Amino acid sequence: MKQDIIFISDLHIALEKKQITRKFQYFLENLACQASAVYILGDLFDAWIGDDDNTPPNKKIKSLLKQVTDSGTQVFLQQGNRDFLMGQKFCSETGIILLEDYAVIDLNGIDTLLTHGDLLCTDDLPYQAFRKKSHSKAWKQNVLSKPLILRLLAARWYRFRSHFHKGKKSQDIMDVNQQTVVNVMHEHNCFRLIHGHTHRPAIHDFTINGKAAQRFVLAEWKKDAVKILRWTIEGYQIESI
After folding, report:
1. Is 30 exposed, middle or buried (0-12, 13-18, 19+ CB in 10 A)?
2. Cβ(119)–Cβ(130) below 8 Å
3. 3-state helix, strand, coil in the chain (%, to 5)
4. Rounded to the nearest 10 degrees, how much is the dihedral formed by the CA atoms of 219, 222, 226, 227?
5. CB 69 within 8 A of CB 166
6. Beta-carbon neighbour count of residue 28 at 10 Å?
7. Are 220 and 46 in contact (CB under 8 A)?
């Protein structure tokens, strides 16, 4: 009987990252299919410019995900800052379930808050302003109305610009704001939080109103280092692939 629950994020799958695609295929065929549920907390792809994009390796990833969901494993996905244009067509083709920006699940009897993590980086004001604009219905409709080739070119430019701007920002600005973390966890009445985005894998212990709390930060997938967070009935463990 499938019981384990696995959490991953920040794979940033792209055509030029063939090793990551191969590792994800191994993960889906050998680990995910043995779990009761898999949670992908954002940035599965390095850029997603619409559900009509079947350029490599997108079509293969869809097929692999469908095989996992057909096996009985539930796959849940939160949109990240790179793949927030993912929609219901992608979900229909893969069998995955799309989650809201904040989702609370029962994890071994404890309410646990899940999010990608970018909403917690409130010190990065330019990014938060762009996020608010780019997540509007009008902005999304405008982008998705463009021909696919234009969206592909725009995504390539955006990735280059994003890399350039990140190099100019301080690391602290791109990390989460601890007070925002506390406020969000308090708002959702949770004392455990799991997220990705920052590429700073760690387990943080702190308190909220005198009560013990934990924040799990998932690791970014790299060609030479992949880690997953597995939750069993005994507790959690961090595994390397």
Report:
1. exposed
2. no
3. 35, 25, 40
4. -10
5. no
6. 20
7. no
Name residue 239's amino acid.
Answer: E
Q: Provide CB contacts within 8 A for 117, sequence distance 6+.
A: 9, 41, 42, 176, 195, 196, 197, 198, 217
- Give dist(CA 152, CA 154) in Å, integer: 5
Helices (H) and strands (E) in the chain, counts: 7, 11
Q: Letter for the amino acid at 183? A: N
User: Where does the pLDDT of residue 96 fall: very low under 50, low under 70, confident under 90, or very high at 90 and above?
Assistant: very high
User: What whole-number distance in Å separates Cα of residue 30 and Cα of residue 44?
Assistant: 18
List pLDDT tens digits, range 99-112: 999 999 999 999 99
Return d(Cα 72, Cα 1) in angstroms, integer.
Answer: 11
Convert the pLDDT of each residue in 114-132 to its tens digit: 999 999 999 999 999 999 9
Ordered domains of the chain (ranges, CATH): 5-240 (3.60.21.10)
